Every structure is written in structure tokens, then in C-alpha cells.
């Protein structure tokens, strides 16, 4: 147990995760089992993440819209694989306005059903394509083993739904949005990810290809951080999205869908957090710097707090989100701990001695490094540190992941080591039987078949049959 | 019927409203009766409105958070008046994860129940106060007479929920947020509003005071555009929000709640729309200017479209949200009509003759005024017009409302005229019986007792008894 009432990662990783969320005041469990209350510090991170994603969606030509929460049972059951995948997880409304409903309504577990059936009305000609729409929404999936942010009964997400004239265009869209996700993961969240395709057994129900970004958490487990699906013509056929093509013939559209959720906050926590709490990447931190004035007595308090506010004004002018912690009932040490737990990138300590020498003390949350800096340079130093810290966090996470990534040609070796975590690149023959065997033997799955890497033909590490292409990643996952 | 397949307001106001929404491609009905699909043009307006509101919430010290959609029945039924008011309108989830639930879950019709019960856990001491939280969310209320944007079964809104140490502070918050709403209505939506308090019979269930902003639509009916509630200690007592005060004694907190919804888009349509479609205030327009190049044949198309894109680049550099409509399968006239229906504040026409003379034609949507402007001045002219149009729309709407606002001392006169619309300031004795009589006689209600105005004692216009204070507004309402 660390000094902050947080179990260390070494003691109990799962408990550490929960403790860190509580200590950082990010979220808590709601009265309905599996539901989550996202508190202001957690939601502030989500808001910034939303903005970064939304800006990129718009830059790539998408518009936002909003489709309803409630979907008639008859609509949701149209695409067979889709309904098999989702119906058992659905929450069902049977009563409304003091009456029993004639037809039960499903709370959307995802919106393909309602959106595709609407697109069918909007699309008549190839001139109506592409349709490039995103929505920010809540969805509900009945979760049996809920964990804050990672798996909750209700979660917040965005879901993009597009329809295209050709399969090439749809496939291009699928990869474009996967690239957007990878960019946000790496350049905003500082979470390195591997882009690839899921195997058939791990695909989104109804998709012909599910692409994903996979990150490694600090316990060596994989976390699927975002998915982008090529739905082929499956949903267009189920929901009658037909259009007159350039050749005058009626044909079915090609559709895609792609989403990321509040689960990304779990990824940030488990990538960057340490035994003192979370560490928030500067680009997402609701506060990037907190100035803690150190004072004794009321008179000194007024003076030092005014100085602290002046430093904050300098920081804001330099483009840094900053605040002064001028609370008078807490000791400086208590404030230091609180902002450490919350993962604020930089703390400024400023007391009478600092004032006398014309300096302030800057402490980095990511490395723990302390610097004594002239007051006139505090703002510019911290503004520069934001970039340094952001880049440093990504580099550190990438090095950490790469150290736990292995090329493995010995299945017994894999079996003995996968429990300790890590990504294992093994050759795979492509047969579902080998996936099942791995899962039964080790609980590990194929996280993805990466896009980047060299073709590396040889014998399947599991069964010895011929294997071609890039080696998939095998790992245990959240 | 106008040339755009929109019924005129004079022909059928209610039909006009629906036609305009369809013609502007803002929203449509969903498969579930009463639910709404908000299309990109409508959602784009909502996004800008959200941003303007959210910025002001943050400037006044509020943080965003997120509370769950699903609320256990036992929680929602704790505040008596509240549950009486809302329970009959609730959608109820009885099944989840393929099982019948032990306790039914209500989809939030509003979040006082879940938020107040959570605050009870967060608040222990006066030092924990105030709590100033807002959430952006969807809510569901079973509507029997749905109308797009105005009354839908599911709608999008924000709901602020605050808790305070004293009633004075809570009352100040209630008015502060009402002022924020009035500011956004007038300076962003260009919709003039009157601030005031509801009478007891029109209060939010459980509130001790409901304040509101009331706007007048073009049919002379009132629309409640936002409410801010003083909940006194009612919810704190029902949900046990207790804290240790500065004097060491345990006491109940004072809470408030306040909200505006996608209904505001209905207010914009019915304040500014005309028989050609909607008119969007420049501050909310997803596109503020659309440049329509006029060309014949492919060669000229390329040239004129390139010029149009150059004008758009100038406009963007001048801070105007602009796009060129370079579609080659539509005639210029069809494009003009389309953007008129959508209410884009300014259109730029640019053809070969304009090119030869070095000019472009600018047409204002609000007044229909056309201007011929040198190409070099197009961007600066339009940037300036954004302010002019915004102010002009507010002034026009205010003049329109003021012309239909009457001081009335003759109940028979009121009865004969209220059906034509308008706000009637009559003296009121304060008795609910008089409100009921007015409602039974005319379907009109007291919209609010305005904050601004002179005390004007005299005889109640309805019953003749003594009446004091500012005259309430009587009107029919949405």
C-alpha cells in the first residue's frame, strides 16, 4: 500500500486500478449494478478526447447527427448475425406512459439497426453517396463483469456510420478512421497502438472485416482501444439500402461503422498510471499545471495567493490550462498528494523562500523531476514542458511495450510465459481450431493480424501446418 | 403553398412548421412514435448552441459530469411531488441480459433522483459546497402529442444540478443560470425572452420556485425556452443531502436544477422562419455563407468552381464559415432554393458576368437584400454582415413581439383576443382559481410573473379582488 491508500501495482493490479480511479476522483459505481458515474475529473479528460476526435472526424468530411435511443424489436432483429451477437445483451423497455407497450423497445447496444434502416430512406441514387455521419451517444449492453471505464452496462461513445458506392471506397473509409483512432491514441493519449484486422472469430457481428487498434496495459494484457468495421453489403441487404448506380442498375450500398468509447480512459489509466495515482497526458489534462502557494497565517496567505494567481495568469497567457490551489484548510503536502493522485502534469510550489529568491519550484508528475526556475521563466518553461512530457510519455509507453513483445516459435514456451503478460508474435495457419486451442490452453486470443510487419512464412507455432503472412499477436486481453 | 413546397404560415402554421423542418433537412420522425432523428443540419445548429452554453457554464464555475441513464424505481420515488409529476411519463426497463429484472429501472425523465442521491454521498461538510455540476444527456418522457424539437419522447438537453450552503446562494445560482439562458437566447439565438417566475401551479414538481424564460412565436403563442429551479431543501431532505455547517450543526443543503433542450431549435425556427424556410442566426449557422458558381459546360465549370473556392478561402480567412456549392448536376436556381430553405445567412452568386466586372452578388437571407460587391471586398463585407444580420434578427423579433404585447384590463376583451396570439399583461390577485378560470375559458395560462416591470396594484382583471406587484403574462403556449 502506497502512502496514498492505493494498492501498488505489484501487490494487486486489479485493485490498484480501482484505487487509482477512486483516488483521482474520476468515477464511481452507480446504484444500478454495472453503471458508472463519471465525475468531473474523469469527464474533463473525456471532453478533451471528444474534441480531438470530433475535430478529426470533421476534417475527414464527417458530420454529426443524432439517432434515437430506443429501437423497435422488429428492426433490431433484421440482421441475423448482428441480433445473435447483441440481443442477449440488450436492455428492454416494456412499459411507457403508464402502459404496457405493444412492441418491446430495445435500448440501443449500438446503432446499426436504426441508422441503416434510416439510410435506406435517404439513399436513392449514387449521387446520395457517400453518407458520412457520426454520432456521440450512450449505449447499453448488459455486462456481467463490469469494471469502471473498461466494461460498464451503459457507456458513452461515438459511432460513425457511413455508406458508399463501392467496396473500395468503404474499405478506404474503414482504414482512414482506424488511422484517425491510431493518431489520437498515440499523439493525444500517448498510448502506442498496433493497427490490424481481427480474425473471423473476433469480428463485429455482421462485419466482413473488423479492424482494430490494440494497446498493451502495464500488466502486459492487451486492450482493444477502437474498432473500425467493414460491413460489406450485409447491413445494406438486411435493411434494404439500395441505390441506382451510375449504370442505371439498382444495387446495395457498402457500409462501415467505427467507434471508440469511455473505455479509452481505462487505457490511459493503465498505460500511464503509477503507484501514486494516474498520470494524465498534457493534451488531455483538465488542468495542466497547479500552483500551490505555501504560507503561514492569514496575512502571508493573502500575499502568496495573490502571487500564485499572478503565476497562473502568466501560465494561461502562455496557453497552459492552470489554476492556483488557494484552499486555506489544507496543508501544502495534502495538496501535493491530491494533484499527484489526479495526475496533473506539472505542479508549481511557491513559498516565502522562493519569493525571496525570485524563483519557483516546478515538479513533473511523469518523471518526478524537480526544477528551480526564475519566476519570469515559469510560464515559458511549463509551456515547453507540455510538449516534452507528452512526447516522453509516449516514448516511455512504447519502450515498455516493446520490451514485452516477443517473437515466439515454441508453443510450450508461449504457454509458460503468456500468463506474465506481453504480446507474442507466433505463426498461425489461419484455422479457427488453433485459436480455440490457444484460448483453451492459455485464455489468450489473437488480438489482431497487424498491418505493419514482414511476411514471415513457416510452420504454424500451434499445429505445425503451413502459415503465411504477418505473424498475429497472441495475448491475454481485457 | 410557396414555390418550395412549404405551406405558408398564413395557410396553416402548424403544417408550415413541419414543412420547414423537412425542407431544411433538419430532422425527421423515427420508427418509434414520438422519437426524432436529428439530421446533420439540425444537429450542426445544436452543436453550436451547446458550445455557447457550455462555455458560459464553465465561465460561471460549473464542471461537466455524467450520471447514468437508468435509475432504480426505489430511488425515483423518494421525492413525492417529483414522482407524481414524472412517473406517469417514464419509460421502464423490465428486462436485461435475457432476464427479467428484480427491480424495474426507469429511464431518466430528468436526473434529480440519481444526482441528489449521489450528492448525499459526496457532501459531508460546508467545505464540500457548493457543488456546481452540469451534464449533457438524453432523457425520455412519454409524450402523447409529439412534435419535432418541441415535444419528443426522447430529447437532448443539459441539466445543471447544484447544491449550496445557504438558500441565498442557491437563489443567486438560480438567477445566474436564468441570466445565462436569457443571454444565449438573445445574443446567440436572436430570440428575445422575458425572465420571470412561474406560478405555483406551473412549477417543476418538487421546486419551491421555478424561473423561466418565455419567448413569443410567430403565431403569437408563448414558448417556454428554459427553466431554472430553486428546489429549496425538498430534494436534500428526500435524498438525505446533509452537511456539517460552520456552526458544527448538521443541516440540509439547498439545491437547484436548470435545463434547456433541443426544444430551443423549435424556438429558432418559429421565431425567424418565413415562408421560404428557416433563417438561421449567423452565430449558429453551420455554414454562414455559401458561394454558388454559375457556369455552363465543363471547361467553364472548372474555372468558376476554382474561383468560388478562392472566395471561400477568403471568407474562411475572414472568420466566416463558408463553403462552395460546386455540384454539377444541379442548376444554380435549385441551389439557391436549397440554401434558402436551410436558412444560410448569406449567399454569394458568382457567374461569368460577375467575373468580367470583378464583382460578386451577395444576397442576405434575412431581408432578401441583394448587393453587388467588388470581389476584393466580398469577405470583409460578409464578415461585417454577420454582426449586422445577427443584430437585425433580434431587433426584428423583438419589435414583432412588442407589437403583440398588450396591457389589458378587460377580461372580456382578453377572452375575445387571446385566440389571435400575443402576451397579455393583466392584473392577478394571486389565486389559483383565477388561473384555472382563464385556462378553462381560453386555454391560456400565466407564462410567468416577469422580473422587470413596475408594480402596478389595482383590481384583478379576472375576479376584481386586490392585485399587487408586476402584472403576469397571460398567453396560450406550446
Task: Describe this protein's structure.
The structure is a homodimer of 478-residue chains. With 478 residues, the first copy, chain A, is of the alpha+beta class. Chain A folds into three domains: 13-272, BirA Bifunctional Protein, domain 2; 282-389, Rossmann fold; 405-475, Translation Initiation Factor IF3. Chain A is 36% helix and 26% strand. In chain A, strands 3-7-8-14-11-10-9-22-25-21-20 form an eleven-stranded mixed β-sheet, sandwiched between helices. A five-stranded mixed β-sheet of chain A has the order 16-15-17-18-19, with helices on both faces. In chain A, a hairpin with a 5-residue loop joins strand 10 and strand 11. The longest helix of chain A is centred in the C-terminal third of the chain and has 26 residues, at 378-403. Chain A is globular and about 80 Å long. Chain A starts with 12 loop residues before the first helix and ends with a strand. The mean pLDDT of chain A is 96.
Helix/strand layout:
2 copies of one chain form a homodimer.
Chain A: H1 13-23, E1 27-29, E2 36-38, H2 40-59, E3 63-64, E4 70-72, H3 73-76, H4 80-86, E5 91-96, E6 99-107, H5 112-122, E7 131-140, E8 154-164, H6 167-188, E9 194-197, E10 209-216, E11 222-230, H7 234-239, E12 242-244, E13 250-252, E14 254-261, H8 263-272, E15 289-293, H9 297-317, E16 322-324, H10 332-342, E17 346-350, H11 352-357, E18 359-364, E19 370-374, H12 378-403, E20 405-407, H13 411-417, E21 423-425, H14 432-442, E22 445-450, E23 458-459, E24 466-467, E25 473-475
Parallel strand pairs in A: 3-7, 15-16, 15-17, 20-21
Antiparallel strand pairs in A: 1-2, 4-6, 5-6, 7-8, 8-14, 9-10, 9-22, 10-11, 11-14, 12-13, 17-18, 18-19, 21-25, 22-25, 23-24
